[in-house]
Structures
1.
Amino acid sequence: MSSATNRQDALTGSTVVETDRDVRPSLAEQIPRLPHAQLRALIKVGRAGGRLPRGALRRELAAALLRARAVAGDGPRHLRITELGVLALVRAANPVPGAQAPAGARVLTAQDLRAPSGRRGAGRRPAGAGR
């Protein structure tokens, strides 16, 4: 429990309450705990180089990530991953030993963070091939 002291402000004469606790949350407390769908969307932003057009994500997902401060607007048409978003991905990939996942939550595995399987460019013709 923090203690509070009252003092008189010399300039205004009003009472000021001072506490010994810093009111700002620590960085660990600021890292958002995102549901699986939001983590998958954040992974999509990360795979795109950290910047993605707003239309690439469903509106609800983009809004939820913006509220959680995992992404930020990057101009009128793009989203970019923030430091808190990167930390949320790190936390999801490296859960704290002994920590309990929320009921019904799916824990991300290394498989979730890998690039999707399948050949890139499948169905494309090599450069210079005739039509």
2.
Amino acid sequence: MAILSRVCNHHSANLRYSSSTATFYYVQERRELALDSEGDMGRHYSTRDFFRQMPNRLLARYFEAHGVLAELDFAAMKEAQPDKLFEAWLELPDGQRNAMDADLRDIFEMS
């Protein structure tokens, strides 16, 4: 977890590290948070469910790294209640949303 913090702190100062590196660190921390990874076969991905399952602090870091949704106060959002986030997500341009959704799907599949 300390590694993720260092990478995110570094990322805040220097936005040049790759998306795949960021994805790896998000997945690693997500795995640490998982209580039991058995029985995950056959899980269905949806963006809304992904937002519901992912801790707000990790969502905030992901979107900060991509320079979007800065107007959202992730700290004020209740965990597992991403309604405002999902509404803002739907307002993003399709191309931008589709590219990030591919990242999120990768994170989901690796978690």
3.
Amino acid sequence: MKSKPRVFIVESLRFADEKQDLFEGKIVSQILALSCSPSEYVYLRTKKELEEVMDHFEESGYRYLHFSCHGNSNKLSLTLDDCLLMSWRNVDSVLEKPQGVFLIMSSNE
């Protein structure tokens, strides 16, 4: 199955960022909507939610997976959990799909 040229946005912020309304991923989703480009936006806080969302992304057939969160080259920082990049249950299998999936990381420490 060929992937759909759509963006699937996953966002997780620190509580202080939430309080300041710094939802960059939501803004990206709104900009895509203004240009008539369908996307899916998911806000999460835990590793368990991330695992479920990764399953949903895989089923969606979307081509672009955009993370908006804190982190570094070794981990993704969610609101309530940290995830080591090498331990993500589904990311490797999703990114190895033959139809091509592109990972976009919008994060800082």
4.
Amino acid sequence: MTEPGSPDYAKQKFYDAVYALIGTATIDRRLTSAASYLMLVQSRDLPVALRGDFENLLRKLTRIPLSSETGLPASAHIGRGCCKTRQSDP
């Protein structure tokens, strides 16, 4: 296992994030899982040329708090039809 703070650790976390995205879970869970791996990376562990873009990505990932139900930002549920109520049986 690689140590936090090393370039190999950052590389592994990016690999883990990509692997999470191609998994079989719902897209909500895949995106949340991928983001959680990226949150473990420190910009200082990346090449200088990538640090600004990575810090920008982290700001975007943390701008809106995640909902507790799906891991998606709470605003993502509004008007998207993803939170339909279950109809009761007649």
